[in-house]
Structure formats: structure tokens, C-alpha cells
């Protein structure tokens, strides 16, 4: 079992920046890849970014590529999502999730943190 807790959401103007954090605890967190997803009102949850268990590989949705950066601090068991040049369409609840490295699906999810970008 892995627990993940997101933080860092808030209200920001378009063009601004935020950094989300995801604190993980439980089983050996270093065995888990971590992902960020988001869900806007009336829309399905979508993939935003992912980082492998070692932190050497990252993946991004086309909509955030070049603006968002995922990273992880293994010593702190924390994953970050740095979001720059935010747009109103980035407004959503952002979720962190953990995936055991041998699995293809994310099994553990946080409660989400709201990000609102005003125009």
C-alpha cells in the first residue's frame, strides 16, 4: 500500500507558475513510477505527466510539454510538478498517482489539489 498526498494548488493568473507536491509513503516508494493527472469540470480525467521510479525519465502530454516539469526527490519521497506559463485551460483538479514499476496501471491515487488559472 502506498499513500500519496498532493499539495500546492491554488489560484494564479494566466502566465503565472505553481509547483505541486506529492508526498508518498508506505511501501518502498522508490519502486513506484509516479504520474500526474488532471480533471476539469465536465471533462474526463487526463494524463499530464509521469516520471519513472529512478527519476531519469519523464513523459508529458502534448498540451503541457515545454511548460510543465516533473521531478522527484527520492530522499523526501516526494514528486513535484512545476507548472509555468499557466493558461486558463489548465484549470482542473490535479491528482498524483503511483504505479508499481512492473505494472502498467496506477493503483494508488491522492485526493487531488485544485488549480485555478484566471484570465
Model description:
The chain has 119 residues and is mostly beta strands. 0% of the residues lie in helices and 55% in strands. It is built from no helices and eleven strands. The strands form two sheets. Strands 2, 4, 5, 6, 9, 10 and 11 form a seven-stranded mixed β-sheet that branches. Strands 1-3-8-7 form a four-stranded antiparallel β-sheet, with no helix packed on it. A hairpin with a 6-residue loop joins strand 4 and strand 5 (46-51). The chain is globular and about 40 Å long.
Quick tags:
single chain; 7-stranded mixed sheet; 4-stranded antiparallel sheet; 11 strands
| Main β sheet profile | 7 strands, mixed
Q: State the low-pLDDT regions, or none.
A: none
Q: Distance between the terminal alpha carbons, to the nearest Å?
A: 40 Å
The whole-number mean of residue pLDDT values reads 95
The secondary-structure class comes to: mainly beta
Rg result:
13 Å
Number of helices: 0
Indicate the multimeric state.
single chain
Number of beta-strand segments: 11
Order of helices and strands: EEEEEEEEEEE
SSE blueprint and pairings:
Layout: E1 2-7, E2 10-13, E3 18-26, E4 32-39, E5 46-51, E6 58-60, E7 68-73, E8 78-83, E9 92-100, E10 108-109, E11 113-118
Would you summarize the structure shown here?
With 119 residues, this protein is mainly beta. It has strands spanning 2-7, 10-13, 18-26, 32-39, 46-51, 58-60, 68-73, 78-83, 92-100, 108-109, 113-118.
Amino acid at each position: 500500500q502506498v499513500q500519496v498526498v498532493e499539495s500546492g494548488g491554488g489560484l494564479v493568473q494566466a502566465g503565472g507558475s505553481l509547483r505541486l507536491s506529492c508526498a508518498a509513503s508506505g511501501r518502498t516508494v522508490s519502486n513506484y513510477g509516479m504520474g500526474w493527472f488532471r480533471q476539469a469540470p465536465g471533462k474526463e480525467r487526463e494524463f499530464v505527466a509521469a516520471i519513472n521510479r529512478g527519476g531519469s525519465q519523464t513523459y508529458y502530454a502534448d498540451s503541457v510539454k515545454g511548460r510543465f516539469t516533473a521531478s522527484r526527490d527520492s530522499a523526501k519521497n516526494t514528486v513535484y510538478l512545476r507548472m509555468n506559463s499557466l493558461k486558463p485551460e489548465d484549470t482542473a483538479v490535479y491528482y498524483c498517482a503511483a504505479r508499481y514499476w512492473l505494472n502498467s496501471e496506477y493503483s494508488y491515487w491522492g485526493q487531488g489539489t485544485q488549480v485555478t488559472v484566471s484570465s
